[in-house]
Amino acid sequence: MDLTYPPEAEAFRIEVRNWLEENLPHGWGTPGYSMTADERASFNAEWTKKLAEGGWICASWPKEYGGKGLSLMEGVVLNEEFARQNAPMRADFFGDTLVGPTILKWGTEEQKQHFLPKILSGEISWCQGFSEPDSGSDLAALKTKAELDGDEWVINGQKVWTTQAQHADYMFLLARSDPDAPKHKGISYLLVPMRQEGIDVRPIAQIDGSAEFNEVFFTNARCPKPNVVGGVNNGWAVAMDTLGFERGTSATTGHRRFQKELESIIETARRNGRSKDPLVRQGLAQAWTKVKIMQINGLRTLTSALNNDRSTMALGATNKMFWSEYHRDTMELAIDILGMDGQILTGAPAATNGEGDEGEGDEGELMPGIGNRHQRPGYPVSMLQAGFFFSRSETIWGGTAQIQRNIVGERVLGLPKEPKVGG
Description:
By secondary structure, this protein is α+β, with helices and mostly antiparallel strands.
């Protein structure tokens, strides 16, 4: 693990840091800094424009497709500096981070020219159609079918846990295009328009009132024949790259949200006196050490990626398993710290602040990216409660903990493959 960044990466760090200091509002990130709802709306609109003018949206993309052509290390530095300043990046995760890089690697020139400018401009939004009711952990067992009918694919089947499907213009979807081929070989990766008859999106209400996830039903839905990425029946290889892009340059910044959250939990324990409980103190100390382990593992993953080491994917599996189980356990500790107060709905209307968080509940905890913005009327969860609910899903999405253990066992430890059911 190399902790020294090359001189050119540090020079780029100064460039990014100077740009942020010049373009963020005066006082951003300082104690007590806040915005009204109108100020936040104005900032969001202006900030996206500034990011585009600065070339920071999809900056790792090649210059001919609108990016800056950043190296891996420059992309890491970019993420680190934005995280250090709590400066928001554009939030089109599916377009910028997943399907965009996939099209760059696997797409035809026509697909690149058509889709990439619209991803950069935010003209189209995306959702991911991988999981199905009977093929979550075993993704290759998917049953959604795509059959060619002239110049279009006809799609029938169902996807589930589809984030933001109710808002998406397109879905990047895995479908079985050859039912007679081995299950990993007969899958195609399609870019499917969502605004059409034959697609029914049904939100899945969560206990905290959020409904980011959806069931999506396809009944003779249509997709243009050229919208296959990576070639017909080659969708499995394409999808594996899509899943790999999710970790990418965030290796050294992924621990930060957990660190900030843990600081808030510690402050809550101090405020209500639970920090004097030796069992609570031990739990918080264990949580702190695990956040530090995440930080170190992130650097190890980055070094592996820079060296094109074959263990990079296995490290990603190890990290995902580690942080998701950490978060589940730590949020249980947080609810224990609240005691009976944790059983009361203590949330308040989200109050935005200058650090890009969604709001602050009565416990004072700050939980980036989840919580009150999705609460249902009459069910005002606090940010800490919302974090507890959300953490229950994190050992499942992005690859279940059981699957991650199989990857680590087979690819890192060299253990025999898990026997097939009935085999």
